[in-house]
Description:
This protein has one helix and twelve strands, in the order αββββββββββββ. The chain is mainly beta. The chain has two domains: 5-48, no CATH class; 53-157, CATH 2.40.50.100. A hairpin with a 2-residue loop joins β8 (114-120) and β9. The longest helix is centred in the N-terminal third of the chain and has 12 residues, at 5-16. It comes from Actinomycetospora straminea. This protein is a component of the acetyl coenzyme A carboxylase complex; first, biotin carboxylase catalyzes the carboxylation of the carrier protein and then the transcarboxylase transfers the carboxyl group to form malonyl-CoA.
Amino acid sequence: xxxxxxxxxxxxxxxxxxxxxxxxxxxxxxxxxxxxxxxxxxxxxxxxxxxxxxxxxxxxxxxxxxxxxxxxxxxxxxxxxxxxxxxxxxxxxxxxxxxxxxxxxxxxxxxxxxxxxxxxxxxxxxxxxxxxxxxxxxxxxxxxxxxxxxxxxxxxxxx
Length: 159
């Protein structure tokens, strides 16, 4: 089950009208906890668990140039891992403007390494590499909107 931004808005509206102070929702790929913090309103914590997909490049003779997606959606080189956003939103490479990026091309990562964040409805969700290896390229620019099938970056898995 995937939650859309409209689903999240409906949950928050329902909570606002209820006497509940906390909601904990756990799905296969997502854990969401929302708490009422007195007069300050609601706070939220979320963890998105999605494994990166290993994608293989199509042979050149079968690819149709007219239907070839742009760099963010292009196939990744064989044997590399494409890291996708856990949900749609704006991708940021750093925790805040002016801060150094989480990772750069050439950096070593492991499955739990945070490689960026995705902002959806003012909620920041960390993006984990999902695999141990070396970052070889970024396909989505800092501050660019990314759909769930976009390739944020490519990792060459460690042997």
